[in-house]
């Protein structure tokens, strides 16, 4: 026999259309909690569930597709109607997600698996990176530098999609902004602040004439920011290509246009969660059909720098 | 022999043929010349006893013959085998069976499986269903019966056996393997007279089958009862090889230790009338001890005799807090005490010298100094910080006092068996206990040092302390103690005054099957 | 003989040393109690879902891959060793089986995965058995090396075999309701139990783990046996890698990540002694089920992600503590240690 | 007493010692050779940068936190135990020290972190020493529990103490060019060395690890000593958590993640035996430095992320294998085992 006889995506909520939001169960398979961005998404989702009254099953997979698969299966066993998935692997989960999506409508958030599921709500990492890159380019040009040497803090080796896009976007943004750059070194900071700090230390020691440390997220850039407090690095600046973490925004706010944390990109966990949960609820209650949605939709993409920081910085937000 | 002759019917050597030849054997360990040029032959169908003081090199020679170690220089040839023996596998092919001083038993295997261990040897193919069947068979029980372990269940874990039983268990392999040379390295050291008879029988059978038997023991009476020739080692050299029928124990002793042995004097009787006993034990149960009562008075050396399994060690362990008593009372100087752990007993100055050196005797990664100071360390320290100068100097003194062949920095595990025992005795006596239980204290100790240990025991008692000596050697107890208790089936069944009893009395009492 | 009053007759003494085999067996099965307790909790809290067909199938699938790895870990632990490279080796086997020649067939994948696993095991085993190195440090090196090769092989990007669809179909096939992957696991359980309990090789493994000196001096070929143990463990891990492909149809670079901890934990909670010589296949299987049920249950109970780890940890601690309460009390009473 | 002249004169005996101490010491220091080889490679490939003041300071900082944890792991391993909860416990100590009362002062943080570490250690130790549980499984439970509490405490979001700035300042303070954090580490090294080598407690730790039965029957309070070992290890880990705050000024939820593997590896590569009773502080320190230098070097050489793990693994394997080649050859020649 076969456990998943069909490979066609489900055309309606699992277990049938629910009469109202109170009887809906939504599964949310988060890829990890190791970075604040993802943790904030959970906090947001739980808030929305409370407000709207549906039942939220939330699981986090520690970056491992195998664990995520098990968790999704467990959610289905518990009667989830719709599933929101932040995929752990863009390429590696194709068959897995085909199987899952044949039984339940799947909405991707942040990271999706192409050609599976019904829709994907993600931040456009390329654009976000580019916007942040443009702001950084402007700062250097304003300061009279037309060419910089930079080092990059990347994600782990398993980062197949998001990181490379953020990196490419940022570099494109620098180029668009008219700044020449050379990359002296790239090391992984695992998207974590402490690992990012250590990697930045090592790269700066090897390349003391660096102008810019780019972190592919704010956590790592914050680690690098700690390093450049040392007097010998007083001419080194930090930028991130994404996230908009509160601590980073605070630094941008504090430093103003002379600050050494130049820019980041907005990748709002709450925006994304709101949008995805809205779709999920509509599908589960039959307000809309899975086929009503486009395969992809993006959340707002902006770069945040000293000039527009006031719009985005909220000291009381979770993230 | 019961079984399974595996290595074909290849012509068994005739009695009198050369079984092995050792030429110019040297074995040097870092800093020690364990053997320094030994030439020796063994013949088929004879029992060759090897005698020598502790550390003379007996075990080393045996290990070389068995191929467990490789000589630094020289060559050993075994009859019927072309190559010099270079390792354990070759020796096994050559038909050498060794019983180690510390028997090698697989603790997690059952008694039955340990008997048939040789079936796991190299070269035997993987035969499904071949392993479990034997270990519980009638044949297994028969084999165990021959080595005096008939009462054991074959599916009992070897872990639970006492040292004496372990020795006999490893000896059972002699019954199931085929060999031309059998080495018994102090196999009798912790066995009682009863088991000695089993060993005698075994040796007799083997010898008639043409096996060469090498017998290492510190008990000269056994050596004389069993052997045809006696090889005497001293400091790694072969001093002489004597015909047993043409020599005397005194002559052997003189050759071994360089001078004749003084007779040990029986201790002067102590006055116990009207005194308060140092230790009073009433109706003690625990382990195999089932209702034991006795007193030990200050200044007394009391002996505890019995067969293996009669409950002596259980008594010793229970009165010293090594094991908890199931019931019964223990009073020290009239005051009832609860000894729930060795630590508590130590606080009350009550200590137990184990018969199980391998398991509980010393710490294998410690050197002599560290082992000797293990118990008394708190006394040699201030606020928990060790006074190293004091430790060093006192350890040196102990080493010479107990005639340990080895320095303070030598690992105890690399010492010869007898020297290890001396380290363990020193460790306990240094704590200056009020009451000390010595379980087989002279196990593996040579005749020279033995006299020394006896004197130390007497000097302990002379300071108004109490000593309880557990031994499987009736003779030893008779010459050492003021009083001897005999145990049987977990109870004290008789008390003897050594001046009015002899070995036979003790053995008979221990063996009798009715009260 | 006429036994004397109070004292037990000598022939009765051996009985006093070890209690009856059934009691003994039950005593040593505290893993089983933990499992029963977990199943009880599952039944009470989420009975209908937990015992539902879907969930049971999921559970079986979830434990079959780690189950095979646990068997490999078990035999290594029995020798007194440890293998912390199993997770990475599984990943390597999966990735190369998926990628070599494009991964055109499921069967070829099996061969490749098993060979890769065997090679990793052979290297580990050679260093441990013939070079005398500490298994922990050897397999730690292998842990990093194999994981590194996984990353390097696909630059961190998952490798989808050409036969992905066949793998996916194969992985969810069931026979009389039981997933094939689970059947493979159970067959391996039987195989390893047979090897350990019924062959000379198995006895040798236990002997080496219990007392390597005694084993050596009894003429047991210690080195080759040790080597064979690591190789067999490697083969099992390779098989696990292939099963991974069957289940996920993709060689992801995180395949098998952190599996080693769970595998060792399952072996240990199943009653095996880390210093070797003691441990049963049955215990290891129970250990495997325990961890799978815990993970499944935490999912079913929808425990907050932030608290899941805490729950899992607390559960492990409480379980092992409770399960030993009676025994350790008894032990103390008799032994007075 | 007067020796009775029957035996050979004792004064001739001390010759029979183990071989010359220097040779012996050098033989057992293969970790040192590995380190020297690594430093050579570093000098050849990136000499000027590697030996530059900035990098040396970085290196010292990078090893001081793990260095303190390694000391805790060492004493546990010496007793024959293992503690795989050190990483999580460090994270817990860091997060709670950062968050409790808002983390208003560096000194209060120290007190809180050390207390948290001590509590974790006390629980581990109690279960191991008094309940007789297997250290691996106990600390595995604690690994999950403590990490779970970290997530739960801050919902996975980093906790920045109010005194973040003071932590940051403190963390980069140097005294005559040496970072304070490194000085704390070195003081701890000296303290642990003193405790292990010069006190009754230290001697007992070794005795318990080498032969627990002999230790017990020699009247050593085995349980309380074991307990104290785990507590001390916990205190050190707590201290490490506080140092983490000093260095990163933020209690991230990943603080200390996977530290346990590195700590055990450093202890083992430093020559300690996992079954207990054998191991030196010096070796553990060398082990710590080795792993820090490897990581630093791979960074300085700008080795691709995809290849770093593979390089690290291969380096470990080659190093331990080479370092033992000569000795095992010698051993075989003499022992012929
Ligand atoms: N592995 C070893 N390393 C170092 N020295 C050793 C080793 N084995 C034995 N020796 C030394 O070799 C010498 C001879 O030891 P051996 O065990 O042969 O003595 P023995 O005659 O059997 O003594 P005993 O009667 O006490 O058993 C001793 O000094 C001992 O310390
Ligand atoms: N109080 C006790 N409680 C539980 N077990 C005990 C106690 N005392 C001793 N034992 C154990 O009981 C077992 C008794 O073994 P065995 O019958 O071989 O020795 P024994 O008869 O006491 O000694 P011996 O052979 O010296 O006469 C030993 O393993 C010992 O450790
Ligand atoms: Mg000897
Ligand atoms: Mg006894």
List keywords for this structure.
heterotetramer; A: 319 residues; alpha/beta; 6-stranded parallel sheet; 4-stranded parallel sheet; 10 helices; 39% helix; B: 515 residues; Rossmann fold; 2 domains; 6-stranded mixed sheet; 18 helices; binds adenosine-5'-triphosphate; binds magnesium ion; ABC_transp_permease (chains C, D); cell membrane (chains C, D); membrane (chains C, D)
Helix/strand order of chain A, N-terminal first: EHEHEHEEHEHEHEHEHEHEEH
Q: Supply the number of helical segments of chain A.
A: 10
Instruction: Work out the strand percent of chain A.
Output: 15-25%
* Main sheet overview of chain A: 6 strands, parallel
Extract low-pLDDT stretches of chain A: none
Largest sheet of chain C: 2 strands, antiparallel
Count the beta strands of chain C: 2
Pfam family, one (chain B): ABC_tran
InterPro entries (chain B): AAA+_ATPase, ABC_carbohydrate_import_ATPase, ABC_transporter-like_ATP-bd, ABC_transporter-like_CS, P-loop_NTPase
GO molecular function, one term (chain B): ATP binding
Domain ABC transporter (chain B): 13-260, 270-514
Secondary structure: elements and pairs:
The complex is a heterotetramer, with one copy of chain A (319 residues), one copy of chain B (515 residues) and two copies of chain C (337 residues).
Chain A: E1 25-30, H1 36-52, E2 55-60, H2 65-77, E3 82-85, H3 94-101, E4 106-109, E5 119-123, H4 125-142, E6 147-154, H5 162-176, E7 180-188, H6 193-206, E8 212-215, H7 218-227, E9 237-240, H8 246-255, E10 264-265, H9 269-284, E11 296-299, E12 303-304, H10 309-312
Parallel strand pairs in A: 1-2, 1-3, 3-4, 4-5, 5-11, 6-7, 6-8, 8-9
Antiparallel strand pairs in A: 10-12
Helix pairs in contact in A: 1-9, 4-5, 6-7
Chain B: E1 18-29, E2 32-43, E3 47-52, H1 58-65, E4 73-78, H2 88-94, E5 96-99, H3 111-115, H4 138-146, H5 163-171, H6 173-176, E6 181-185, H7 193-208, E7 212-216, H8 220-226, E8 229-234, E9 237-243, H9 249-257, E10 279-286, E11 289-296, E12 301-305, H10 312-319, E13 327-332, E14 335-336, H11 342-347, E15 350-353, H12 357-361, H13 368-373, E16 381-382, E17 385-386, H14 388-401, H15 417-429, E18 435-439, H16 447-462, E19 466-470, H17 474-480, E20 483-488, E21 491-496, H18 503-511
Parallel strand pairs in B: 3-7, 3-8, 5-6, 6-7, 12-19, 12-20, 15-18, 18-19
Antiparallel strand pairs in B: 1-2, 1-4, 8-9, 10-11, 10-13, 13-14, 16-17, 20-21
Chain C: H1 13-17, H2 21-28, H3 30-50, H4 53-78, H5 86-99, H6 106-129, H7 135-154, H8 164-171, E1 174-175, E2 178-179, H9 180-198, H10 200-210, H11 212-217, H12 222-248, H13 259-269, H14 281-300, H15 305-335
Antiparallel strand pairs in C: 1-2
Residues 162, 164, 286-288, 306, 308-314, 317-318, 323-325 of chain B line the site of one adenosine-5'-triphosphate (ATP).
